[in-house]
Design brief:
single chain
């Protein structure tokens, strides 16, 4: 009977999260170099030769220049950036309301309102107010991006802007956009 092969153990970079062999193709190879020198010397042997002289001088100069540029105070904390696996940065969502009209069955329209929750508005209450104001059905559903949105029956896209700004003064009219022909258009 044939022997079962052993699973391969992969060393992942502590900085970018990629396998150590692929760090050079990642977004922050310069930040990965000190970690690689310390933990994966066999993967990049060239880093040890060049790293001892050139890289150490570079890093010390960068550290000194940043401490001088910041006024010498080490009490200021750097901003923490959320990193996803693979070194990708997580974007912070912009506060905006997106209104989209979807036509179904040739004559029926559904107006979709996305982003009200970013302004601290409870979507259930907003759906109820929209349903009463426009005398239609309105419900909170999960959209294709797994975020909750409000679906309102009927074509109320242009009337809804005034209602949103009057009902919730926290939502500025400049933060409301329409999606027309696949493009985002400001409501104002």
């Amino acid at each position: 009977m044939a022997e079962k092969p052993e699973p391969v153990r992969v060393l992942y970079c502590g900085v970018c999260g990629l396998p150590a062999e692929y760090c050079e193709f990642g977004p922050d190879f310069e930040k990965c170099k000190p970690w690689l020198i310390q933990n994966a010397q066999d993967v990049y042997p060239d880093l040890l030769k060049d790293g001892n002289t050139k890289e150490v001088d570079k890093v010390t100069q960068q550290l000194q220049s940043t401490s001088i540029a910041s006024g010498g105070s080490s009490t200021s904390q750097p901003e923490e950036v959320k990193r996803l696996p693979g070194g990708k940065l997580k974007k912070k969502e912009r506060q905006e309301v997106v209104i989209e009209k979807v036509i179904r069955n040739k004559r029926k329209c559904i107006t979709t309102v996305k982003g009200l929750d970013l302004f601290g508005i409870k979507l259930g209450d907003a759906a109820k107010k929209l349903g009463k104001k426009f005398a239609t059905g309105a419900s909170v559903v999960k959209g294709p991006t797994e975020k909750e949105q409000i679906d309102v029956q009927g074509d109320i896209a242009y009337d809804i802007v005034e209602f949103i700004t009057d009902t919730w003064p926290d939502v500025p009219e400049a933060a409301i956009f329409f999606i027309e022909d696949g493009r985002k258009v400001p409501a104002s």
